[in-house]
Amino acid sequence: MTLIAGSRRALALTAGPALVTHGRGRVGVVICDAWGYDALCARRSLRILGDRLAEAGYPSLRFDWPGTGDALDVPGDADPLGLCDAALDEAIARLRRETRVEAVVLIGLGFGALLALRAAERAPEPLAGLVLMAPLVKGRTWLRELQARAALIGEITGAPPRPGSDDALEIAGLAMSTRLADTMRAQDLSTLARPQAGPVLVMPRAGKTGEDRLAGRLATEAGDATIPFEGYDEMMGDPTGSQPPELAFDRLIDWLSAAVPCGQGAGPEARIVEAGELHLRGDAFRETPILFGPQDRLFGVWCAPARAVPYARPVLLLNAGATPHVGWARGNVEMARALATRGVASLRMDAADIGDARPVPGRAEIVHYDAAQIADLASALDVIGLRAGASGGTVVVGACSGAYLALNGAVADRRIAHVVAVNLQRFLWDPRDDVAAVLKFGHTSAQGYGRKLFEADKWRRVIAGKSDPLGIARNLALRAWRKGERALAPWLFGLSPFSRLYNEVHTNLWVLAQRDVRLDLLFSEGDPGLAQLRAFFGSGARRMADYRNLAVTRIPDTDHNLTPRAARAQVLEHVAAAARASVQAAQAAE
User: Fold this and answer.
1) The pLDDT value given to residue 93
2) Nearest partner of 291 among 281, 279, 301, judged by Cα
3) Cβ burial, residue 459 (10 Å; 0-12/13-18/19+)
4) How many whole angstroms separate alpha carbon 118 and alpha carbon 88?
5) Does the pLDDT value for residue 295 go beyond 90?
6) Comparing C-alpha atoms, which of 151, 118, 133 is closest to residue 42?
7) Could you report the per-residue pLDDT of 376-424, keeping only the tens digit for each?
8) Separation between Cα atoms, residue 95 and residue 104, nearest integer Å
9) What is the 8-class DSSP label of residue 158?
10) What is the mean pLDDT of residues 229-240?
11) What's the rounded Cα separation, in Å, for the pair 430 and 435?
């Protein structure tokens, strides 16, 4: 049997999952990801790059470095960079084995470019080519950039970095060990000679002289090239706002097609994969990367406990915004494995066009708050039903837009028994609102915008064209108008748009109450989503007493993303209690 070009296979390497995208050529590509927060931002873009490479004929493989993404954690006594080297060597061998390609090109981004160069130096035979995107030139400089970016993200989110005693730094809740930082400080590619490899493409960022000099040193032979990396900043802003650098990808693939032609084989042959090859094992869990849904467009990781607790409900972990399935600060990975230690199975997933999941034709370009996502949730519940049975229902967990999907998915699908919604911003979407504007401005309070109007650095950003003052003003005016409309909603009997929305929300809540679907609403103190409680339950949330299935909990000392580990630990306790509530009910019935 021959696989269709562009089809995908999810598999597990020693350290973590990998995705192979099939192409019909004889030259394959291993994509070497960035590290930490950069990898979180770039995940969707690199999935798109992998698909585009397959369309051009190049089979590709993507994977996570040890200690990042879905991969296993790095033991404290291990050499972290050495483990990354070993993971890349295994990825190259696995691509050859899966696709039967005759030659391999490495494409590295940032930290991944360093690992790609190290692989080229030790490869037993020359690589077919190298592509170095925004290459890490000096480890010391890279670490300083990470520190500065970590401080900026902390200022924006309200959660400053809090590295642990064994950590050199923390960025967006992702820690780098002192051992890895010490190893990286010693890395210096500024004097590196051109490796024994095929053609080399270097893609430096604008204004990065170190990257320009590296390009001048490495791109010296026939077929080598230097192409500016346009669109890098737009890709790395944040996971939800990240935009793929399409022009840079166009130029990369054009260069690759000319410098390292893929050739045309008969197409990759399908083969039977032994069951053991599909699993990633920890002490308390066994994880399986899976493709599911229509045309296998969706992606998830099934985390099964080593010792399952009878009657425990399985848990479905949804995306928050466009943050990939690993979660902000790797929170979904940590939660899934912690649940496994308590005997609870889980599926963490990417909905369509988020992270590793492909888009569904015909859907809206902005997927957040789109009713079509309920079909993705239903596909995930199908998977859970096949793997766990879930006769007692499923616990669905989501944050922000994922909380919205969890709540409204429970109204649409009776297989959901319990919803844990973190920092829910909307009970229902108001069709008058622009999704893009809400994603851009929705998590900042009006008072916060007011303060920023008087800050000199914010005005400098306006003058430089990096802020949108008219957009902010429109957003503030709209909030003021809607505030009055919300206050009158209970007495307008559906005569205003928000009054109709108000009635629909309470109809949905009544449906959940009649089915005895539990609804836990968890909010960070001061989160803008708390305004929904006032809007739909009145001052002091008086009307909440009508719904005995509903509970509200406030989480102190955290941001909207739950960056502090202590905040995520509180959510874990709620989720674990929801999953094990069915155990108590079953034991009482026996």
Assistant:
1) 95
2) 301
3) middle
4) 10
5) yes
6) 133
7) 999 999 999 999 987 889 999 999 999 999 999 999 999 999 999 999 9
8) 8
9) T
10) 95
11) 10
d(CA 565, CA 548): 30
What's the order of all strands across the beta sheet hosting 200-203? 8-12, 17-21, 60-63, 27-32, 103-109, 129-133, 200-203, 225-226
- What's residue 583's pLDDT? 79
What pTM was computed for the model? Answer: 0.90
What residues contact 424, with CB distance under 8 A and at least 6 apart?
400, 403, 404, 407, 521, 523, 529, 532
Give buried/exposed letters for 36-65 (b at 16+ CB in 10 A, else e). Answer: bbbbbbbbbbbbbbbbbbbebbbbbbbbbb
> Which residues lie below 8 Å from residue 452, measured CB to CB, with a gap of 6+?
458
Q: Degrees (nearest 5) of the Cα angle 236, 241, 244?
A: 60
Sheet holding 298-305, edge to edge: 280-281, 285-292, 298-305, 346-350, 315-317, 394-399, 416-422, 518-524, 550-555
Cα gap 8→53, rounded to integer Å: 13
Which helix (H) or strand (E) is 480 found in, with range?
A: helix 469-488
Q: What is the pLDDT of residues 76-134, one digit of tens each?
A: 889 999 999 999 999 999 999 999 999 999 999 999 999 999 999 999 889 999 999 99
For residue 269, what is the DSSP state?
B
Are 235 and 45 contacting, i.e. CB atoms less than 8 angstroms apart? Answer: yes
For the chain, give me the number of helices (H) and strands (E)? 18, 19
> Mean pLDDT, to the nearest integer, of 271-290?
74
Token digits for 292?
A: 């599911």
Under DSSP, the state recorded for 138 is: B
Quote the tokens at residue 85: 């080297």
Residue 474 — pLDDT band, cuts 50, 70, 90? low
Please state, in angstroms and rounded to a whole number, the distance separating the CA atoms of residues 116 and 102: 18
